[in-house]
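Q: I have 97 residues here and want to know how they pack in 3D. Can you give me a structure?
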Amino acid sequence: MNPEQVIYLWVGLGVLFRVLLPYLNEMREGKLPRWEAKYLLPPVMSCIISLITLPLVLDTMPAENMSQFAAFAFGWANTDMSRFVQKAIASMVVVED
């Protein structure tokens, strides 16, 4: 497997784990959260951000020099950033019933 492909795989795992851990934590506490489509926005946005920015990072630092942990953290951080932006926008929007 190409080192660049391995980096993309670890970024994808970072995104996946950042999305699944809160859900699994809720399940462990005995609450099963209801699935909503809004849960898909952060991972999709994170994947788009990663596909745009990761080639820029790999241009400055070869894939052979990037650790799997750094790639995992890159995916995790992008998802975290996407969730933060989603919550910030949601707090600005006033929904009237």
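Q: Anything worth noting?
A: The chain has a mean pLDDT of 84. The first helix runs from residue 3 to 28.
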